[in-house]
Amino acid sequence: MAGGLIASLPALAQTAPAAPAAPASAPARADDVKQLDPVVITANKRREKQREAAGTVSVLDGNDLERRGAHDQEDSLKLAPGVQFNKGDISSNTITIRGIGTSTANEGSGAQQGPTGQYLEDVPLSSATGKGVIWDPVTFDLDRIEVLRGPQGVLFGSGSLGGAVRYLFAKPRLDSFEASLKGEYAKASGGTSKPSEFGMINVPLASGVAALRVVVFDRRDPGYIDNLGTNHKDANEVHQTGGRFLVTVKPSSDFAATLVASTQDTKQGDTFSVSPDAKKLEHTAPNDSHRRVRNDFYSLTADWNFGPATLTSITGYWHNKTDALIDDTELFGSVGLVLPQVFRPQAGQDHATSQEIRIASNPGGPFSYVAGVFYQKSRGSSAAKQIDPSGLFGLTDLVDLTSQGGGTEKALFADTEYAFGNGWSAGLGARYYRTSTEGSESGTIFGGPAGFTQIDSNDHGVTPKATVKYRFGDNLWYGLVSKGYRYGGFNPPPNPSFFKSDSLWNYETGLRLAPARGLQLDLTAFVLDWKNAQFTFFEIVNMLPSASIGNVGKARSTGLEAAVRYRLDSAFDFAASAAYIDAKTKADVKIPSGGPTSVTALSGSRLPGTPKLQTALQGNYRFQAPMDWSGRFNATYTHVGSRVQFLGGNKPAEAYDTVDVGLDFTHTNWTVGFGVANVTNEKGVLSVTGAPAGVGAFAQYFLQRPRTYTVSLRYDY
């Protein structure tokens, strides 16, 4: 499709309306050159300036991410301190915001919602009985990523306990023809080199009334980890293909609708983890742990402006399918079950349908509001075996389980704000929700029957929110109190038990200062009180490592965040941000274990996966190159402090630093880019999995990518 559309560029260009001639530009004033462009967000489900919102929202611009060579969550989320990306294999990453997390691994953590919500457009990618889709869209033609810190229970519902990450695609342009082609070649230090291709075309179907936007991509990440057991070098190559199709129609100035259809198919040759040495890019297993994940997404958004307010309908559907073979030989050996090989074939799929209808006031007047209703129904099923081909225990299928489950969420929500004058305003909001979940499992464990009959559970409650703001000049002070929640659930055999829903109160205050033209400074302080925090623990049951979910009595996260943006002139701009977070339990937690001694996380134990200190520095320098080419140099430095990886405090991860640089040159329609990611080739540990606490020292380390060189060529029409 993309090839045919690109081939028709000349004909389409002839039929497209001519762009008006650009007016002669007047000399830019010094103040204009230094002016920072305002950032507009929709995190509160209505358009507003980022720095006028009560709360902290980081905006990662899609074009800027692409220029910096960012392709996925590992590259992009490190630019938002206070947000910790815990790496796993594909579709098993976890994200921790402001320390709200008790598990750094999706793998083995059961039917538990993640503490951070993920949203594509305004559609939640979560389900009642698990983490849902772990979507990681490529940054090509991505409009922006919005990272919402703190609980988003009022507007985004369950699964946004610690915050939310929203991905927003670039939308069709109704009045201009556009097309882009990009080729990229990447080489990993000590690994392979692979090409990637991307394409986009935007075609007005009727000028000002309807337009089509199509994006396609074929992306390959070089492999760099060797499996010594299979003699497979650079086994962890990733191949991702897919695209999206967007249509916008706007028959009148008061009505617009956008249809989005997106698909993404990702294959991984072997695990991203290394063991037993975190400094060597290798591991030993008799099988490659390969995975394939397909994500399909559809949404229809319709907006009707009827003067004082806009009525919006959002219909969403997503489907997630996973096939994998995971080698567990090393894990079994670490707990005393030494076998020639143990592997786990598994397959599963999840899908959800959602509908939201809301009404939001249009700008103007002292009173603003958004109110609506939300409904989501999700279902999922999985089948997994754990196989010992040697049959040393008298059977080959150590585990053979099939499960299914689902749930619904219904909610009413409203968020309001009233401006009293003299710079003061205040807001109130709340969400009333009702949830229900059900699930069942059947099969065998070590030859014996296992499973449970249908389990049904229901929950309901209210999550409130209150804000106060004071504007003085171009500055803002705000105070915020809000609450978030997350589903409880059921642990299947061999450890049948319920775990409770957890909830969290957020107390936050912040300053948004503009002390000089071209300079912005943001300061935020927060306290998060967490009740019944859900955590994942491992123990040995019937000789098998088993994961279950329990509740910590109380936990608390306190922190400070700071961000500065500075534009010196048209050539140079700079941004810096930092977060200090102290996240700890407030009660003793006894962690079950199959080892000789139990493990207790004492009150004051650090929550896993979050460093106390994170920083990010970004700089851009623009210059005039020879032969009418314009150049741009960018550099990024990030620091991630030390972390613990399990609630018991074992398997710590050391602090690490990352430096990325990029250089590109543009002339008319062409852009040539050069980049080096992880310049110092640091082997930073992003997350750790392995043997249960108190059982063994075996660990699998998920490292950041090694030094990677990239060359790209892009053509924009």
Short characterization:
This protein has 717 residues and is mainly beta.
Could you give the topology of this structure?
Blueprint: H1 2-7, H2 9-15, H3 30-34, E1 40-41, E2 48-49, E3 57-61, H4 62-67, H5 73-76, E4 83-86, E5 94-97, E6 116-120, E7 123-124, E8 142-149, H6 153-156, E9 163-169, E10 178-188, E11 193-206, E12 210-221, E13 226-227, E14 238-252, E15 255-268, E16 273-274, E17 282-283, E18 291-305, E19 309-327, H7 329-334, E20 343-361, E21 367-387, E22 397-421, E23 424-445, E24 448-472, E25 475-486, E26 489-491, E27 497-499, E28 502-516, E29 519-541, E30 544-567, E31 572-585, E32 589-591, E33 599-601, E34 613-624, E35 630-640, E36 656-667, E37 670-677, E38 685-690, E39 699-703, E40 708-716
Parallel strand pairs: 6-9, 13-17
Antiparallel strand pairs: 1-2, 3-8, 4-5, 6-7, 8-9, 10-11, 10-40, 11-12, 12-14, 14-15, 15-18, 16-39, 18-19, 19-20, 20-21, 21-22, 22-23, 23-24, 24-25, 25-28, 26-27, 28-29, 29-30, 30-31, 31-34, 32-33, 34-35, 35-36, 36-37, 37-40, 38-39
Key terms for this structure?
mainly beta; 22-stranded antiparallel β-barrel; 717 residues; 7 helices; globular; 40 strands
Helical run tally: 7
From the spread of the alpha carbons, the general shape counts as globular
Structural class computed from helices and strand pairing:
mainly beta
Q: Could you tell me the strand content as a percent range?
A: over 45%
* Overall mean pLDDT: 86
Instruction: Please give the largest β-sheet.
Output: 22 strands, antiparallel, barrel
Helix content: under 10%
Gyration radius over CA: 26 Å
